[in-house]
Design a protein that fits this description.
The protein is α/β, with parallel strands linked by helices. The chain contains ten helices and twelve strands. The chain folds into two domains: 133 residues, Rossmann fold, CATH 3.40.50; 165 residues, Alpha-Beta Plaits, CATH 3.30.70. Strands 2-1-3-4-5 form a five-stranded parallel β-sheet, with helices on both faces. It has a five-stranded mixed β-sheet with strand order 7-8-6-11-12, sandwiched between helices. It has a two-stranded antiparallel ribbon with strand order 9-10. Helix 2 runs parallel beside helix 3 and helix 7 packs across helix 8. The longest helix has 26 residues. It is elongated and about 75 Å long. It starts with a strand and ends in a 23-residue tail after the last strand.
């Protein structure tokens, strides 16, 4: 694990660092609380903070509290407070400030390692829960929540003026696949499609049913079109077993590019509209949202989203 140790005693820092390195942990030591906090703010990969109460610049309790308040850390850093004090009130205050465990000084290296093994178990459980919450259970790619979180974060952090593009894709005649071959074959189609094209784009997810989306920060419309075409051809090459039949499936794609004044939803809506026109024009093709001003020719209201049509 990646461990930060904060204590004003050089001997304690040396003993802990040596013990944890013997375990195979990566260790960063600080005697200054503010320096430890600055490091925690810049490195989201830290798993565990071991801190004493007495530190330079910032107290251990303040460090606990500030670590608890860190935003964007998933899961939160596991905090172990160390003290030679027998003051119960101080221990309670530490736990209320965000500490997860307590280690009394002086300690045996075996006890430290046991506390770290407990931290590992908690971290693993937390990471498993986060993965399950963000992963589509059928296909293994990001689910709707994960896609929108990742895409919107990338959208907001992209420098002004940089190109941005989105791709919406939908499996052609997917309802017919389920009706004719059964949902187990439909599930196989979804899994194999996701495995085939999920690695092509970093921000990619299943929005629901047979609909998927990709977000490409730094890509122009035409660059995204090329990515969509790679995906489309990869899907067309799939051969999926359906009893005595080998099933071939295709996808339709819609591509859009960011325009001045767009938010992420507007970008995605134009990609969705382009996807609709790819379906209308015969499926198994990619349509860019600016071709022939298709973005001005909205889908009939009664059809709603492409995901709800039986195309």
């Amino acid at each position: 694990m990646h461990v930060v140790v904060a204590d004003n005693g050089e001997t304690i820092l040396h003993i802990i660092s040596r013990s944890l390195q013997d375990r195979g942990d990566t260790v960063r030591c600080f005697s200054d609380g503010q320096e430890a906090l600055n490091y925690l703010r810049t490195d989201s990969k830290v798993d565990v903070l071991l801190t004493g109460f007495e530190l330079h610049s910032l107290s251990g309790l303040e460090l606990c509290w500030e670590t608890l308040l860190l935003s964007g850390v998933e899961p939160p850093v596991y905090v172990i407070v160390m003290s030679s004090s027998s003051d119960v009130a101080k221990l309670v205050e530490a736990l209320d400030s965000g500490a997860d465990d307590f280690l009394r000084k002086p300690f045996f290296p075996q006890e430290l390692c046991a506390r770290m093994r407990a931290a590992e178990r908690v971290r693993k459980s937390q990471l498993d829960l986060i993965r399950l919450a963000k992963t589509d259970p059928l296909t293994g790619v990001g689910n709707r929540r994960s896609f929108f979180e990742s895409a919107e974060k990338a959208f907001e952090s992209t420098p002004s003026g940089s190109p941005l593009a989105a791709i919406m894709l939908d499996i052609d005649q997917f309802k017919s696949v389920n009706d004719e071959y059964g949902h187990h074959v439909g599930d196989a189609v979804l899994r194999e499609l996701s495995a085939k094209i999920g690695s092509i784009c970093e921000i990619f997810g299943r929005l629901g049913g047979e609909e998927f989306a990709a977000f490409l920060p730094g890509s122009s419309m035409h660059a995204a079109y090329q990515v969509a075409e790679v995906m489309r051809k990869a899907v067309a090459e799939l051969r999926i077993s359906a009893g005595d039949t080998t099933l071939i499936v295709t996808c339709s794609f819609g591509v859009s590019e960011w325009r001045e004044g767009d938010d992420f939803d507007a970008l995605l809506r134009r990609a969705d509209n382009a996807l609709y026109w790819a379906k209308i024009r015969g499926r198994n093709q990619t349509v860019m949202s600016d071709i022939e001003n298709n973005e001005h020719s909205d889908k009939p209201a009664e059809l709603g989203s492409v995901t709800r049509t039986a195309c």
